User: Fold Pyruvate dehydrogenase E1 component from Micrococcoides hystricis.
Amino acid sequence: MPALRRKVNEREPSLAIQGHPTGPTGPLEKRCTVTQADNNSHILSGLTDNILDKDPEETSEWIESFDQLVEAHGTERAQYIMRSLLQRAGAKSVGVPMVTTSDYVNTIPADQEPEYPGDEQLERRYRAIMRWNAAVMVQRAQRPEISVGGHISSFAGLATLYEVGQNHFFRGKDHPGGGDQVFFQGHSSPGNYARAYLEGRLTEEDLDGFRQEKSKEGHALSSYPHPRLMKDFWQFPTVSMGLGPMNAIYQAQFNRYLQNRGIKDTSEQHVWAFLGDGEMDEPESRGLLQLAANDKLDNLTFVVNCNLQRLDGPVRGNGKIVQELEAFFRGAGWHVIKVLWGREWDPLLAKDDSGELVRIMNETLDGDYQTYKAESGAFVREHFFGRSEVTKEMVADMSDEDIWNLRRGGHDYRKVYAAYKAAMDFKGKPTVILAQTIKGYGLGSSFEGRNATHQMKKLTVEDLKQFRDRMRIPVSDEQLEGDLYDIPYYHPGPDSPEIKYMLERRKELGGSLPLRQEPSTKVHLPSDDAYKQAKKGSGKQMAATTMAFVRLLKDLMRDKEFGQRIVPIVPDESRTFGMDAFFPTAKIYNPAGQNYLSVDRDLFLSYKESPQGQLLHPGINEAGATAAFTAAGTSYATHGEPMIPFYVFYSMFGFQRTGDSFWAAADQLARGFIIGATAGRTTLAGEGLQHMDGHSPVLAGTNPAVRHYDPAYGYEIAHIIKHGLWEMYGDHDGDHDFMYYLTVYNEPLPQPAEPEDLDVEGVIKGLYHLKAAEIDGPRAQLFASGVGVPWALEAQEILAKDWSVSADVWSVTSWNELRREAKEAEHYNFLHPNEEPKVPFITERLANVEGPIVATSDMATLLPDQIRQYVPNDWATLGADDFGFSDTRAAARRYFKIDSHSMVVRTLQLLAKRGEVSKDAPAQAIEKYRLLDVNAGTSGVPGGDA
Ligand SMILES: Cc1ncc(C[n+]2csc(CCOP(=O)(O)OP(=O)(O)O)c2C)c(N)n1
Ligand SMILES: [Mg+2]
Assistant:
């Protein structure tokens, strides 16, 4: 008989484990915590399922015993016992599936809460004032002639979550450890502004500039956290749901990376991310949790504001978002802390010997929880406590008001403090705090918990009065009854006890947050030596531009002073790009090092992981790689340590897949290099529709912070990168905040040495004269970019040989930059009609250039067409529109009509139209080169990895 076997008709004493998912639980003080189970049973550690049954008889007794339990007490009771046993097994390090959810109660029992270290009364006083000012700011911005909107309810609900952090945890930049990094929830920005106002960082005039960024310039506040628009205030853009969680994870990883590489001591810097429960439905919010667990990022805390609502309505009306997130995060290896109930519930839970209260808490759906707080105490009595005689009795002595005042945990300073402290103290895992709150808390009955509350921006006189009374703001009825859009802000004055206390707290913690700074750390840019090799070309060897880039990167990394600042980032394609050469020397970053015997350890280019590794390898994970790029590319501001990311990836999976992250990176003023390797719609040869990128430069062109280049040769790449580094980190008065996007290819082609008289300005501005015609004849101009250039050179020869046409070849290094500059000139001329008009660079360069232009690239025609209006010459574009496909490069180019012979025919057509060659020449050429036959194409070299 198993030792633990008991008669099933005896009443079981509670197994006393806090955190079982359903069924009755014992009183709080009898439950033991799950901390140890939390530590040991982790889905990542794997399970053994092939253990032999050594004692079948004993096993069957256990099973029989269980069957009797089900029969006597039903499935619910059996479920409780089973889960409790599983949980206990986890605590005893017995390998069984972990229990992923716990009861719908606070993870930290009341008797284990630490003392609250602050003056709660004072803290609540200025929290109330912040709530008032934040709402008034939005209200004033709703003045009919302005009506620029804003959110009131989200901050009202999460004020406590911010304030406990601001008063006791978030370290500012003056802290000796360097300060924390806090990702504030985007649409709760009114709360940050309201605090900054009380702290004396913003004035009333500033608050009145909310969302009027141009019309109130100098006193404008951006709608959401936009560092680009408020460079001295916001650090992290968060409002595009899902990007904040990703970026926070990679920020925490990057902090550790800097630490491990010996660049900066970040051991005292913590990353906090405030997220919405609705936001957690974004795949980006959940998709990268594993990295944080694998890297043991205990320098990271997520706080999910579980108001159970998103914009339209409940997040999980029919379910429980907190429970779902608990299971999800725990399964991903995170430490989970739930803060669900305020202190007023503690005595009730302590009395809950039968477990009925916890049962009801467990069983109540989110949709109902939301409704309770939009109703009344009487309603809660009837619909919540009234569901069981025991619980009804429990609150019999309480008034409806007392019941109404039973708070949710996320509004209780003590409960939130306990959770934050536990998160900071916990080692070995990242922590998520799931805090239950009410959306629109304190705003009165027309806001609290209403489905429409997210979008509500205006308070009525009645709302305002109710709100004023609850917040105890000294504003008279008359002031509220006048102009509804002239409701006064309230500041108790810098010498009031609450403000003095508040400022003192921040001073002690290292100054105000959020705060963005750009410490002026000088970067020693690489010496000219680093670029020497790239300018030499590849001699007789054929080399793809991807390879030319990688060689240059290697040379830059060798630079004594500068090299260590480079952060190469590759999502699992290093071998494709020839970057496996970095493995043995630069090594792949892994905080755990390499604890296994590497299969290729004897090879020269063996896979090498190290805590000091320089290469960030996020796995097959472009989203994470872009987040890593963002963290590295903003390190100059976040850490005062300029680091230069070179993020290398399949170009198709860049701007198309992670465009929004690049947009956020631009908002965050990231600097660095984005390398779209294996670019082009014909160049990848065998990879097909989903890989052949002909449009990323067009997408990149829509991001104002991105300079795109489509270089043809290694020496062009050298000049572009050199210029890029100077633009980002050189000593000049211009804008430094750019990301350079280079498309490079994998087609092995001759890499010539840099011409002696290279027009470097042209390379940077987007176009230079590469090769003059060698004969006299009708004049034409061949423009080409990237991998199109060598074929334009071939077309030049064919035009001369077969048609006596004198064509020049131009390498267009950047269609986008040519357009950008031309647009700027055009805009200037528009606004300065009486001044000497500016001539765009492209127009000026072509002033004396004769003949029609045929512009070709491996990309969509939209790319070259951008500059057409600035070019006086006749013009034709050849490009690769439509989906890509797999074939040989020669066949694909012939199909799209972007090969040398297509360039020849198109040139002849333009010349024929001008009467400079015979009218029949184009048709003859089509015939001669069998232009309609894809098998007759010859413009393409086989080989090159993909
Ligand atoms: C990617 C993206 N989609 C949609 C939105 C619009 N939006 C802003 S806030 C919001 C609701 C947020 O709900 P939740 O995350 O629960 O935050 P809460 O306000 O409830 O704290 C939505 C849909 C957005 N900002 N980003
Ligand atoms: Mg929500």
Q: What stands out?
A: Residues 1-47+56-99 form one domain. DSSP finds 36 helices and 19 strands in the chain. Residues 276-278, 307, 309-310 surround magnesium ion (ligand 2) (CB under 6 Å).
